[in-house]
Structure formats: structure tokens, C-alpha cells
Write a structure and sequence with these properties.
homodimer; 195 residues; mainly alpha; Tetracycline Repressor, domain 2; 9 helices; DNA-binding
Chain lengths: 195, 195
DNA sequence: GAGGTAACCAAGCAAGCGCTAGTGTGAACG
DNA sequence: CGTTCACACTAGCGCTTGCTTGGTTACCTC
């Protein structure tokens, strides 16, 4: 078994697993299906991962880590005006969501299949990510750019954004950035200044 | 097997199944678990349902039917102003969502486990429901109450509303109607008139 | 060229899965 | 009183599941 999470082989296997988990769902995906997709036999799979659970955890960790990196970069190199930061954050969210779509779909819809210990570890990552959002939302509230309860607003926004994986088609005419801008425009309080 | 969907026994079994499906997920819920929860042996289960798939379909159909009934009632007996109709629709959505919470969580997150024929049948129900939403949204757009693309708006709203099942606690201080009103207030375009 | 190691394979085990077959029982009905 | 029917039971079949075991290969290092 490979202890390092960064082994290139393991990373590739994780990517393939994410794809299958999205296609079939975690429970319906058998170790034999995973092995075949990876071009190995089912027994060999357990050289790379302790058990099936660990594959799921690896997939979700990968996606969540990337989300954190991208969001932090968007805020660090990004604009300072609260409204623009809100837009940058929404854009960053959709950017990761569709760059690592498989991993994020798994994270969103198979989270409950995680064993308790893995879930606890990954919850910290997710909390760190949501903290970034709450910071941006607090600033926007303070500046009067948006209005409402901070938790309600953040959950409505994240709900609307996360739900896009259910209907958004990247081949279509709309770019992810357009979606993000439209959503932010939609929730801007009392300022009829959208395009 | 019971052909009528309205047998009271079958309805009760469907309710119990919904609960288990939410707790464990459809795939992880075995027919033996279902039977035990129902106080019978696993073999007896197939007197009521042809197979496990049919139980899933029954759960989802129940929830979706109720959603349609409640939404239609809210619109028929409801207000005529576009903004008020939007609010009524959002309230109705959350009302069903938490009245039949288990059934709706299953419908939202286990839909893909449906066999193709059951899925086709139930899609019509869901489409009818979404048509109601689009009608209300079109009126609101025409009246200038909200702005944006009709599909984008509807998907953002439904995403935000559906996502509430992930975090909303009915025991908490906030009533579902408050949530609905806050969301509608949030998306009202260029009219700083929320509470 | 000996030793170590990452990667893989063949074979299979124990447990659990959905579902079936055949039977029993008590209430309802003519 | 005999028939029917909804409902439940026992027993188990055939298959798949996640995972283990013991051994093989190819490459790297000193």
C-alpha cells in the first residue's frame, strides 16, 4: 500500500475512480470494475489502496484540496471591492467544480458513504473552504452590497452553485464565468445595475 | 403483488422504505433491512412489490405527486401579483420538501438508481412540476420583478431551495416560510424593499 | 549480481445479495 | 361449510461482493 497520497500512479487511479463513481455511484462501483478501468486485476487494486473506502476518500480529498487552492488564489490575486470579490469567489467555485467535475460530484453526492474517520478529516478541509466564503459574504454584507442573514445567504449561494452540476453543459454557449456573474447580479440588493 | 398504488398497507411500507433509503442510501439498503423495519420477513416483501426497484419508484412517485398537488393549490388559491406568486411557489416548495422530506431526499439523490422505464414515467411528473415554476418565473420576468435568463433563474432558485435539505433543521428557530421569503427577497431585482 | 521494492496476477474465501418456491393461516364471502 | 384471497412464513438458490493469500515479474541500487 502506498502511504504517500502524491504517488503519480495513485493519482491517476484516483482520477479514474472518480469517473466511475460518478457514472455508477460509489456503492454500485465494484472493485472489479475499478480494476478493469485501470487495466489491472481486482486484487492488485489493494496494493494502492487499503480498501474501497480509501479510494473514495482519496477522490474527495483531491477535489476539496483543489477547491481550496483555487479559491485562495482568486482572493489573493483578486480585486478588493466586496462586490468584485463575491464575483471572483463565485467564478472560482464554478472553475473548480467543472475542472475537477468528477471529484466534486463525488464529494457532493457520495459524502455520506465515507467512513466516520475519513469524514472527520475531510470535514476540516470543507470547513476551511466555507470559511473563505463566509469572509467574503461578511464583507459584502458590511458594504451593503447584499442583504440578509450571513448563513442563509451563503447556503443559498452555495446551493445554487453546487446544483449546477446537475444541469450545466460545458459544451453549451454559456461559460462558467457567465453563470457566476449572473448569479451574483441576481442577488445584488437594491441596485438595478446588472447588464 | 398489489397493483393499486393506493393500498394503505403499501403506502405505509413506502413511507418506511423512504426513511431507510435516506438513512442508508438505496444501494446499501437491503431487502432484509426493509423487511425488518416493516416487521415482516424478507420474502414477504415481494408480495407487495415486484422487486426492489419498484419500492424506489413508489417512494419517488409519492413525493413528486404531493409536490404537484401542493404547488397547484398554492397557485390556484393564491395571490395574483407576480412577486407574491413567486413567494407562494417558493413557500409551497419548501412545504412539500419538509412535509415529505424523506421521499424528496430520495427523489433528489437517488433518482439515477431508477430503472429506465420508471425514470421515464416519473420524468413527466417532474416536468409538469417544473413547468409550474417556469410559468411563475416568466410572469415575474415580464413584470420586471426579477431579471435574467428564465432557465438560469429557475435553476438557481430550485438549486438553492433543494439544497436546503442538506442543512436546514426544522427544530431550529427559522420556519420554512421564512426561508422562502428570504430567498425571494434576495433575488428581487433593483428594489431595496426587503424587510 | 545480489538484494530490495513497487507493481501486478491467479485463485479463491466468507459473507451477503436479490429474489423464488412452496406452504400455512385467518378473515371475508357466497 | 367450502372457497377465496391477502398476507405472511421457511428455506434456500445462484450469484456477486470486498478482500486475502502466496507467488511472479521488472526495474533500481550498491
Amino acid at each position: 500500500m502506498n502511504v504517500m497520497n502524491a504517488s503519480p500512479r495513485r493519482k491517476e487511479l484516483t482520477r479514474l475512480a472518480a469517473q466511475l463513481f460518478v457514472q455508477e455511484g460509489f456503492d454500485r462501483t465494484t472493485v472489479r470494475m475499478l480494476a478493469q478501468e485501470m487495466g489491472i486485476k481486482s486484487g492488485s487494486l489493494f496494493h494502492h489502496f487499503r480498501d474501497k473506502q480509501e479510494i473514495l476518500a482519496a477522490v474527495i480529498e483531491e477535489g476539496t484540496q483543489n477547491a481550496l487552492v483555487i479559491a485562495r488564489r482568486a482572493l489573493d490575486n483578486g480585486p478588493s471591492h466586496p462586490e468584485a470579490r463575491l464575483r471572483a469567489m463565485a467564478r472560482a467555485h464554478l472553475e473548480t467544480l467543472f475542472a475537477d467535475r468528477n471529484a466534486h460530484v463525488v464529494a457532493l453526492f457520495e459524502w455520506r458513504r465515507l467512513a466516520p474517520d475519513a469524514s472527520a478529516h475531510l470535514s476540516h478541509l470543507r470547513d476551511a473552504y466555507e470559511a473563505l466564503w463566509l469572509g467574503v459574504i461578511d464583507d459584502a454584507l458590511a458594504a451593503g452590497v447584499i442583504q440578509g442573514d450571513r448563513f442563509l445567504v451563503s447556503r443559498f449561494i452555495l446551493g445554487a452553485l453546487n446544483w449546477t452540476v446537475r444541469w450545466y453543459n460545458p459544451e453549451g454557449p454559456q461559460a462558467p464565468d457567465d453563470l457566476a456573474d449572473e448569479l451574483v447580479a441576481m442577488i445584488m440588493a437594491g441596485r438595478g445595475d446588472q447588464a
